[in-house]
TrEMBL record, chain B:
Keyword Phosphoprotein belongs to the record: no
Location in or out of the cell: Cell membrane; Membrane
UniProt-listed InterPro entries: NADH_UbQ_OxRdtase_su1/FPO, NADH_UbQ_OxRdtase_su1_CS
Designated name of the protein: NADH-quinone oxidoreductase subunit H
Keyword match Membrane: yes
Organism per entry: Pontibacter populi
Length: 170, 367
């Protein structure tokens, strides 16, 4: 039941985000999409992912997007509107993705997947959250991707600092 | 649902007391009298203020973006109020005891920022816009030292659950499921050989278990002042420059909500500071030999005495911190924007990073 509420919210506000011309409204409906997806994560017992989603996307990326929109609009004293470009190619790519996804979903027999049948409903067991498992996995099985991601972030940070510095004219 | 209503009532009464205290403290520090007319010593003043606000007309500016303007106060208050969901009030009373409470709190507070941008934009007013911009820039920057300071406390406690962190800081530690065989040592160093597990009191508070957390407490407290837009970090609502900041266009009930959200934010950051660093709902009095002050002033968990003592200690510590916030407001002048950013990025963040490193080493001494 809860899942359907979140799913409908996500779909409706996602559709609104795509269809509205006002970029700022699109940004705010992205907020609802992200929140309802976080709700769906919680229903899937992925509490850490849900909160990380809030932290990174709502607290970081979305605020950055809104800041960008607000700082760059109203230059000509009107709200920023998006335009329709590449209508044919966009529709084609989107249609192909929809067809491909529906085809593979319809072809696969999801309820007979072996790991789904042996799955227990009590995912967490005695643990109170997934943090411990995620931490151990990150430091053992997935340590290389984890470190590479941190290196990438460091490079991005240095790049940002370099772009932002005052370049002395020689 | 009961937790929702109880928390809301508690929060409203704390905010009303706080609003009165703010005026009285300000008056005292400036050698004035403050409110004196309504009730004994003017104590009904803030209640009447609220009633006045509720009766006022709800004005929506004609040129404002009406939907955003109307939605923003609700979003701001909802974000702050959602943070209270994970705050444990007594040993066995916590609205939602989720395992990643600390992380959830940090994330849900960042929703507040979106609401502020919404209010600033929706007002269609340059002062409101500038105020929202400043406020958001300030909150986003100060989340970093605050987050690092919280991280060092979490590293010492090895838990993201507020209730578990609370139990660790008192004589009741072994009552928490999963902590039955844990031990507290003086300053957290086992080599000193002084077992404080049953002594409790102030010796098991986080700032005592790992004295390095005293520094992170100070960092957190400074950063939390900035996060709740309090003086000396109140440039988002600098009266001399911006009239009132992002809520300049709001009136009546919507202004009351924004006001409530701002004061709730103050209460929330102080509660978090108390829980993470100052022993949560635990008593400050230690057991000294046969004089078991800690047990006497804790009550029995699960009974009324436990609830009353726990709530009493938590709220009284919170009020001490809130009083400190008020006092700072009327003592220090406002910082400039560049000084604000200098303090955040060049002073607090490097120190906080160092504290995180030392906290990690300290944790190794504790086991």
């Amino acid at each position: 039941m809860l899942f359907y509420i979140f799913a409908i919210l996500a779909i409706v506000s996602g559709a609104y985000m795509v269809l509205t011309r006002n970029l700022l409204y699109a940004g705010f409906s992205l907020l609802i999409v992200l929140l309802s997806i976080a709700g769906i994560y919680v229903l899937l017992f992925a509490d850490f992912i849900a909160v990380t989603q809030l932290m990174v996307y709502v607290g970081g990326v979305l605020v950055l997007i809104l800041f960008g929109i607000m700082l760059s609009s109203r230059v000509q004293d009107k709200s920023l509107l998006s335009e329709n470009v590449n209508t044919v190619w966009g529709a084609l790519v989107a249609g192909l993705i929809v067809v491909g996804l529906s085809y593979s979903i319809l072809k696969s027999n999801i309820s007979s997947l072996p790991w789904l049948q042996t799955m227990e409903m009590d995912v967490l067991g005695n643990q109170k959250s997934t943090v411990q498992t995620i931490g151990i996995k990150l430091m053992t099985d997935f340590v290389l991707p984890f470190e590479i991601a941190s290196l990438l972030l460091l490079i991005a940070l240095m790049g940002a600092a370099y772009i932002a510095t005052d370049k002395q004219k020689v | 649902m009961l937790a929702f209503v109880l928390t809301l009532v508690l929060l409203l009464s704390i905010v009303i007391v706080l609003a009165y205290a703010e005026r009285k403290v300000a008056a005292f520090m400036q050698d004035r009298l403050g409110p004196t007319e309504a009730g004994p010593y003017g104590s009904l003043q803030s209640v009447l203020d609220v009633l006045k606000l509720l009766q006022k007309e709800d004005i929506v500016p004609a040129a404002a973006d009406k939907n955003l303007f109307k939605l923003a106060p609700i979003l701001i208050f909802a974000a702050v109020f959602a943070g209270f969901a994970v705050i444990p009030f007594t040993p066995d009373l916590v609205p939602a005891g989720i395992g990643i409470g600390v992380f959830y709190l940090l994330a849900i507070i960042s929703l507040d920022v979106v609401g502020l941008l919404m209010a600033g934009w929706g007002s269609n007013n340059k002062y409101a816009m500038l105020g929202a911009m400043r406020s958001v820039a300030q909150i986003v920057s100060y989340e970093i030292p605050a987050g690092l300071a919280i991280l060092s406390a979490v590293m010492i406690c090895q838990s993201l659950d507020f209730q578990e962190i609370s139990y660790q800081q008192g004589a009741l530690m072994n009552r928490f499921p999963g902590l039955e065989f844990e031990m507290n040592w003086l300053f957290g160093i086992e080599a000193l050989g002084i077992n404080t597990t049953t002594i409790g009191g102030i010796t098991t508070w986080n700032i005592f278990r790992a004295p390095i957390l005293l520094i992170s407490f100070i960092i957190y407290f400074i950063a939390s002042l900035a996060e709740s837009n309090r003086a000396p970090f109140d440039i988002p609502e600098a009266e001399s420059e911006l009239v009132a900041g992002f809520h300049v266009e709001y009136s009546g009930f919507r202004f009351a909500i924004l006001f409530l959200a701002e004061y709730s934010m103050m209460v929330l950051v102080c509660l978090v500071a108390v829980i993470l660093f100052l022993g949560s709902w635990n008593t400050p009095l230690p057991n000294i030999g046969p004089v078991s002050l800690a047990y006497w002033t804790t009550g029995t968990v699960g009974e009324l005495s436990g609830i009353l003592w726990g709530g009493f200690w938590l709220l009284s510590k919170t009020f001490v911190l809130l009083f400190l916030q008020l006092q700072i407001r009327w003592t220090y002048p406002r910082l400039r924007v560049d000084q604000l950013m200098h303090l955040c990025w060049k002073v607090l963040t490097p120190i906080a990073l160092g504290v995180v490193l030392i906290a990690g080493i300290w944790r190794l001494l504790m086991i």
